[in-house]
Specification:
Two copies of one chain form a homodimer. Chain A is α+β, with helices and mostly antiparallel strands and 241 residues long. The first copy, chain A, folds into two domains: 153 residues, Jelly Rolls (Sandwich), CATH 2.60.120; 81 residues, Winged helix-like DNA-binding domain superfamily/Winged helix DNA-binding domain (Arc Repressor Mutant, subunit A, Orthogonal Bundle), CATH 1.10.10. Chain A contains seven helices and 14 strands. In chain A, the strands form four sheets. Chain A has a five-stranded antiparallel β-sheet. The interface between A and B is large, with 55 and 55 residues. Chain B binds a DNA duplex (30 and 30 nucleotides) through helix 6.
DNA sequence: CGTCATTTTGAGGTATTTCAACGAAGGTGG
DNA sequence: CCACCTTCGTTGAAATACCTCAAAATGACG
């Protein structure tokens, strides 16, 4: 299916999330200890996947859970009308493929070339039941993704395309290779992926980017690289709701 | 703070969710065994809360996690503009109050009189680490809520108010006291709560309900009770996207 | 039964969607 | 290396649907 490698080569999967309890970092941190990573690595296969490759299809029998190690993946659903909705982008340290009744609830496709850890669901279940400490980190991670999903709901309700796009950019700043104050942001996904994620038409995204470019808030080095030129203006736009 | 009772009176908290692995039920099932419920009950306080009572405020130090046993609760955030967004309604069997860095990420308020299990976060952490089987059910529950949040994102992107409201009704059919084929649905929350949940203006919700009433899809027995008169039309509306 | 909050209704303004067409980019084969 | 083709992205103009503001009607509650 994919090019796979012995999982020993690396230290094992990592999970990034903000935990329940206070620890004054605002940046999502690595949750797992080296021991826990090795434990996951023992049941994981590290696979290297080219860009635009379908990982699984909505409704298919779910055998594997994935953890993203490098690259970007999108989880999406096709609507009856043929429209597509991207329910989330998965970045390094994100987990995806958690099923419902043994079936995937959305499809997944790589956006860029990616390196993934692929873990059989039954093996993961077994390991988690054996290692409460590791499982606790999974609880934290899933909860983190739940909070992110709630935040996205707020984005989707905004009526202005530029505001939504601005929030999208700030969201990307939370993920590697960005830091919260990065000024250059890679946009590996296509405009229509962004549109499907933000619940806008492709044209609306295009007009929003153009509008932000024209007023000097951002600029494009190329189509897949944004430069923030006026962070204050961007933050104002994000807060204007 | 609230009226509290010995937690012994009942069998303990219940959690409802669709598990990862197949089990051909489409209806969310009770996850916990009687033993697990007793275990949670041992560290939980059962509190009876009047309607419209604030449970906690966004940003406050998070000491407790809640599990809804009876009634309906809303989790919401206030936006800079003063607008309100309801991020979720919590029904019996739902868990809420999971914090980020020791702080609640949204406020919570009872919609109806409610009975809640209140559990100290540190005690819950301790119990979960001690009981992997129980913790596994928590993973399933949080994952379930994550999927529901993703489904809601699809609702929010719809442009038509009537379609969003129709999906809201169908969502309510998933929760007690409804069954998937119920024809009478209680709407305990106010129109503006629904508006804040669906990302619409209060007026848009009102017009949507009126429109659905006029064409005979639904009718109102009173303002808080909907009767589905044409299920096929409702389902068509839900699917039209 | 009166008061207050909630809900409904009306009219105009605004932003996005849709439809259509053009321009740019990337990949393939001659 | 160039031509060609397909996909992706940009731009323009009209239609649609919701939002906002304002006011009336309904219902809840003491």
């Amino acid at each position: 299916m994919f090019l796979s490698e012995r999982s020993m080569k690396r230290s094992g999967p990592s999970l990034r999330a903000v935990p329940f309890l206070q620890g004054d970092s605002t940046v999502p941190a690595e949750l797992l200890t080296p021991r826990q990573r090795r434990q996951l690595a023992a049941i994981a296969t590290r696979v290297r996947v080219p860009a635009r490759r379908l990982l699984y299809r909505e409704g298919a029998a779910a055998r594997w859970v994935f953890i993203c190690d490098e690259g970007v993946v999108k989880a999406f659903r096709e609507l009856p009308s043929g429209k597509r909705r991207v329910s989330s982008f998965l970045f390094p340290g994100d987990m995806f493929g958690l099923a419902e009744n043994g079936r995937y609830v959305s499809s997944a496709r790589t956006v860029t070339p990616a390196v993934l850890y692929r873990i059989r669901i039954d093996e993961l279940s077994a390991v988690l039941r054996r290692d409460p400490e590791l499982q606790f980190q999974i609880v934290i991670k899933v909860t983190h993704q739940l909070r992110e999903s709630h935040r996205r709901s707020i984005v989707l309700v905004r009526r202005d395309a530029a505001g939504r796009f601005a929030m999208f950019l700030v969201m990307l700043l939370q993920h590697p290779p960005c830091t919260p104050h990065s000024t250059t942001i890679p946009l590996p996904m296509s405009r229509s992926d962004i549109a499907d994620y933000l619940g806008l038409s492709l044209e609306a995204v295009s007009r929003a980017t153009r509008s932000l470019t024209r007023d000097g808030t951002i600029s494009f080095l190329d189509r897949h690289t944004v430069r923030i030129r006026n962070r204050a203006a961007l933050d104002r736009l994000v807060a204007a709701m």
